[in-house]
């Protein structure tokens, strides 16, 4: 697990699943309001876009890797992990629990999610219907696929009724779609996405729902999400297929689909499969929970043997007490072996306390009167508090309220003189209780302290306890002798200032015997005049608002915004009270006088969609006792200010440059100090930003904003290391990005010695010999790399794709002195599965002759089982047929022995005696089991029950290498 990892140069845009309207409590097939059926789980994932996980937001990075999909091609990696985000979990109904529990998201699935802006784009789907029109399209699509995510829009030319897809995220992706036959509007049937290396992702499965559109509430069906169905290589090889459990309903009388809901069921590759088992519970309808809950994830090899599995256990939140409103909480995650015996357990503990702020019950007091001690001790309900690791160690998370910069200058202090408004700097102090008796005196005085030139507020609590005189007979009711309905006596008061002006007070609390009022005036002496019927007696208390001693920290807390991490503490076991490690996080400005944070209003795609707020911090200090501390500084949208580009004074519109890059902040500086506050090292980052596209997209932060998709054009890094005697070692690095494919254009490093090392990358674009590579959209493959040292070329290599091949055919070296060409290696032949089966290291450029090697692939064409150096495929002929066949049926120890014997026999073939041979066996998805080098000294690899390498032994059982694992705490 990684904690608050800083990603300085590589900018990763996490999937931004925004939900339409508020995240409601849904049941299967329910539409109506435009809320997607998959809302609960997508809502949890959306938090990673709404409140980014990094140091600048104070949201800790808590994630647990689960399983890597076994894809044979190393260019595609599809990993599943559990990720936790505490934002908005705190007892809020509108943020429901996902299929893995409140606050948790299962990352790894691939989807294109449609977000409706106001009304559905394709609602006018019948050109003969009354009111039909070619409407403007404004809905958004959010996408996620292995290694890439972002959003796009489909624009409509209403005059020509044509459509174009505009990618609003700077990445090298090509989108294609197939449309339904309907010509009245655009109804998309499926998507195909191609990445910059030519890999294709097919989104053929979909969620479907029916919603009401237009003023007449006409029911319209649409695909709300498209799910990944398969991945293929540039050559068309199928790398992975995805299947889904589908819940759907059709209107029987017209065979019309009413709704469909997909849940990932299995991913299958040529190496194995990953199976997802969910429990579907429709009784959870109208609760803040996804109807699905993930029960188990199983990894199996190609022969359907289980390698490992993860199972998930859940509990319910104790708060709120209403069962229908309780959320699913992930209680534990178990890792199991090949027969589902538990190997490890990770447990999760949540705070189940509910805090109420001790706010003064008076309309004359504001929220600011809540004491600081409340915020210091507050615990966020249902938020992850502890993780008990498989090793028994405990990680404890302590959260606090976010703070933002607030200037406690004299102007602000003067503005709050009229009441107890801000408990951080104010407190209420009561004068001694004064008893009054109007039979003795009806006029009293009291004094309010302070600057006589500044108006202030003070409270008066006036209480009448009784009357000394009996009632006057003249008030007796003649119809009720004895006085049953006689008018009640009363006592009242007036207050006037030293100038004789009576003050009007504001009622706060009143009742039968007392009332409380706030008065506004200047410090000085005041007169209280008491009057009424009879002679009343009682008491009054005057309360003054006073200021705490200065200086004040320039910050305010934000109780309405999600928590930030305060510290993370590590213990050896659950019984330890003394931690082995504690990491503290401080978000103050570098001089410590105030908070470095400011409230950031996140964007919304539409004017009627809610947007979230969170705090961005420009400075964060991470410290650990005994290890010094590190200070981080960040650039945020405020460093690239918005400016008004239209609208009016009352309703302005703004342009926000580079917004998509800066909204997640950029690391600008990192400084490392020791315990003595001595600077040990520093890293400074300078960014050159640019627009990736001229397409303008719109968003809303209370007002309309616009921007263009931007990218980091260049980042320069200055690294300094300081020794104790003050000697400075300085390195400089620079990386520039190619705008056409967003891949590295060049890198440059200036070492402390003064040496300058450079590397330049050239891509297929514009090169005629690589036109077929461009046509396959393999535009992110560098086909030539040039390396320089102090300005001189030291290496220049080019990768060739001859004869319209989409796999490399050779590597050419270019002599830096005379630009002559030499073939370094030739890739002679691939099999039908894109496996390299013969290559030649060329020694004679004129003849093309050199040293040839052959690779034999087994285990159903997924693993190399033999490498024969010096031999060609012609030399091998059919000699490898037996070892290939035996590898395909290697399922257990007995079949592996048969394979090893066959490999040994292969090695000793008389016709192969002049070649150098290495052979291999495997336990698929676990690792190599034997390696026999050319000298025949076999190494045997042994694994423990957790599939971790335990030792390497020789054929006699003697240990050559031994591995011991100390599980590192997160």
Features:
970 residues; mainly beta; 39-stranded antiparallel beta sheet; 59 strands; disordered N terminus
Please give a structural write-up.
By secondary structure, this protein is mostly beta strands. Among the domains are: 1-350, no CATH class; 626-737, no CATH class; 852-970, no CATH class. It has 8 helices and 59 strands. The strands form 7 sheets. It has a 39-stranded antiparallel β-sheet that branches. Strands 22, 23, 25, 27, 28 and 30 form a 6-stranded antiparallel β-sheet that branches. Strand 50 (810-814) and strand 51 (821-830) form a beta hairpin. It is elongated, with a radius of gyration of 36 Å. Mean pLDDT is 86; it is low at 1-40 and 470-486.
Topology:
Layout: H1 39-50, E1 62-68, E2 79-84, E3 104-107, E4 111-115, E5 140-145, E6 148-157, E7 162-167, E8 173-179, E9 188-195, E10 200-213, E11 218-232, E12 238-251, E13 256-268, E14 272-280, E15 292-301, E16 306-316, E17 328-336, E18 342-350, H2 372-377, E19 384-388, E20 394-400, E21 403-405, H3 410-415, E22 426-430, E23 434-437, E24 443-448, E25 456-467, E26 491-496, E27 506-510, E28 514-521, E29 524-532, E30 536-547, E31 555-557, E32 564-571, E33 581-586, E34 597-601, E35 613-617, E36 619-624, E37 629-635, E38 643-647, E39 652-655, H4 659-662, E40 666-673, E41 679-691, E42 697-701, E43 703-707, E44 710-722, E45 728-737, E46 744-750, E47 756-762, H5 771-775, E48 784-789, E49 792-800, E50 810-814, E51 821-830, E52 836-844, E53 849-858, E54 863-869, H6 873-876, H7 881-888, H8 893-907, E55 916-923, E56 927-932, E57 939-943, E58 949-953, E59 959-962
Parallel strand pairs: 39-43
Antiparallel strand pairs: 1-2, 2-3, 4-5, 4-11, 5-6, 6-7, 8-9, 9-10, 10-11, 11-12, 12-13, 13-14, 14-15, 15-16, 16-17, 17-18, 18-19, 19-20, 20-32, 21-31, 22-30, 23-30, 24-29, 25-28, 25-30, 26-29, 27-28, 32-33, 33-36, 34-35, 36-37, 37-40, 38-39, 40-41, 41-44, 42-43, 44-45, 45-46, 46-47, 47-48, ...
Helix pairs in contact: 7-8
């Amino acid at each position: 697990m990684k904690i608050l990892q800083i990603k300085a140069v590589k900018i990763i845009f996490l999937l931004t699943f925004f939900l339409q309207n508020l995240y409601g409590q849904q049941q299967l097939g329910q539409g109506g309001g435009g809320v997607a059926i998959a809302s609960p789980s997508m809502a949890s994932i959306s938090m990673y876009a709404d409140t980014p996980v990094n140091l600048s937001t104070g949201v800790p990075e808590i994630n647990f890797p689960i399983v890597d999909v076994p894809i044979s091609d190393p260019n595609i990696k599809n990993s599943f992990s559990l990720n936790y985000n505490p934002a908005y979990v705190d007892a809020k109904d509108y943020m429901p629990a996902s299929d893995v529990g409140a606050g948790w998201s299962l990352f790894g699935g691939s989807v294109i999610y449609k977000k409706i802006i106001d009304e559905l784009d394709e609602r006018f789907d019948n050109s003969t219907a009354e009111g039909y029109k070619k409407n403007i399209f404004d809905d958004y699509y959010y996408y996620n696929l292995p290694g890439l995510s972002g959003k796009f829009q489909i624009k409509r030319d209403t005059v020509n009724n044509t459509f174009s897809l505009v990618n609003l995220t700077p990445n090298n992706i090509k989108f294609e779609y197939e449309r339904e036959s309907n010509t009245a509007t655009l109804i998309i049937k499926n998507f195909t996405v191609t990445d910059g290396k030519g890999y294709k992702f097919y989104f053929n499965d979909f969620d479907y729902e029916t919603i009401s559109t237009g003023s007449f509430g006409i029911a319209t069906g649409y695909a709300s999400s498209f799910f990944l169905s398969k991945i293929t290589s540039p050559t068309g090889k199928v790398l992975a297929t995805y299947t889904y459990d589908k819940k759907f309903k059709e209107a029987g009388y017209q065979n019309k689909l009413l709704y469909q809901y997909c849940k990932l069921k299995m991913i299958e590759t040529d190496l194995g499969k990953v199976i997802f088992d969910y429990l579907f519970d429709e009784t959870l309808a109208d609760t803040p929970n996804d109807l699905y809950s993930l029960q188990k994830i199983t990894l199996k090899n190609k022969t359907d043997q289980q390698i490992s599995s993860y199972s998930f256990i859940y509990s319910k939140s104790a708060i709120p007490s209403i069962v229908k409103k309780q959320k699913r909480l992930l209680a534990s995650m178990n890792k199991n072996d090949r027969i589902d015996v538990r190997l490890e357990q990770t447990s999760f503990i949540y705070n189940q306390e509910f805090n109420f702020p001790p706010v003064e019950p008076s309309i004359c007091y504001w929220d600011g009167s809540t004491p600081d001690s409340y915020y210091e001790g507050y615990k966020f309900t249902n938020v992850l508090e502890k993780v008990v690791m498989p090793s028994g160690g405990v990680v404890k998370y302590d959260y606090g309220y976010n703070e933002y910069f607030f200037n406690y200058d004299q102007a602000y202090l003067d503005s709050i003189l009229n009441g107890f408004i801000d408990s951080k700097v104010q407190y209420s102090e009561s004068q001694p209780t004064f008893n009054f008796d109007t039979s003795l005196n009806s006029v009293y005085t009291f004094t309010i302290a302070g600057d006589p030139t500044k108006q202030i507020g003070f409270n008066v609590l006036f209480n009448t306890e009784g009357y000394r005189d009996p009632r006057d007979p003249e008030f007796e009711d003649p119809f009720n002798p004895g006085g049953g309905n006689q008018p009640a006596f009363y006592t009242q008061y007036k207050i006037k200032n030293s100038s004789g002006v009576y003050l009007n007070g504001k009622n706060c609390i009143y009742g039968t015997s007392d009332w409380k009022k706030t008065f506004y005036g200047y410090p000085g002496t005041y007169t209280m005049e008491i009057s009424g019927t009879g002679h009343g007696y009682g008491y009054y208390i005057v309360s003054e608002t006073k200021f705490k001693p200065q200086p004040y920290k320039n910050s305010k807390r934000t109780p309405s915004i999600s928590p930030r991490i305060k510290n993370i503490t590590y213990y050896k076991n659950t019984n330890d009270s003394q931690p082995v490690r504690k990491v503290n996080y401080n978000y103050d400005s570098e001089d410590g006088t105030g908070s470095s944070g400011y409230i950031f209003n996140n964007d919304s795609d539409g004017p009627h969609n809610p947007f979230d707020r969170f705090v961005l911090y420009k400075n964060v200090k991470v410290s650990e006792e005994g290890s010094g501390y590190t200070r981080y500084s960040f650039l945020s949208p405020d460093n690239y200010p918005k400016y008004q580009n239209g609208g009016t004074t009352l309703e302005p519109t703004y342009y926000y440059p580079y917004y998509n890059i800066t909204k997640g902040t950029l690391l600008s500086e990192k400084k490392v100090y020791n315990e003595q506050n001595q600077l040990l090292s520093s890293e400074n980052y300078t960014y050159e930003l640019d627009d990736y596209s001229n397409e303008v997209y719109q968003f809303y932060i209370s007002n309309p904003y616009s921007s263009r998709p931007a990218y980091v054009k260049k980042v320069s890094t200055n690294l300094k290391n300081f020794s104790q005697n003050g000697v400075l070692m300085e390195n400089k690095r620079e990386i520039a990005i190619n705008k056409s494919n967003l891949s590295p254009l060049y890198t440059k490093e200036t070492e402390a010695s003064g040496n300058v090392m450079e590397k330049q990358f050239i891509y297929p674009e514009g090169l005629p010999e690589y036109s077929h590579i461009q046509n396959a959209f393999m535009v992110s493959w560098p086909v030539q790399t040039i390396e320089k040292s102090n300005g001189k070329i030291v290496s220049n290599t080019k990768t060739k794709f001859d004869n319209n091949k989409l796999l490399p055919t050779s590597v050419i070296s270019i002599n830096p002195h005379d630009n002559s060409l030499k073939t370094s290696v030739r890739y002679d032949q691939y099999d039908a599965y894109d496996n390299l089966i013969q290559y030649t290291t060329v020694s004679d450029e004129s003849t093309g002759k050199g040293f040839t090697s052959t690779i034999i692939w087994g285990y159903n064409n997924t693993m190399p089982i033999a490498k024969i150096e010096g031999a060609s495929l012609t030399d091998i002929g059919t000699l490898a047929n037996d070892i290939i066949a035996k590898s395909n049926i290697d399922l257990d120890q007995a079949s592996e022995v048969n394979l090893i014997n066959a490999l040994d026999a292969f090695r000793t073939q008389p016709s192969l005696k002049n070649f150098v041979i290495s052979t291999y066996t495997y336990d698929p998805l676990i690792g190599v089991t034997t390696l026999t080098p050319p000298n025949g000294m076999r190494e045997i690899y042994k694994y423990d029950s957790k599939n971790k390498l335990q030792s390497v032994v020789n054929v006699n059982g003697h240990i050559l290498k031994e591995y011991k694992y100390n599980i590192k705490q997160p």
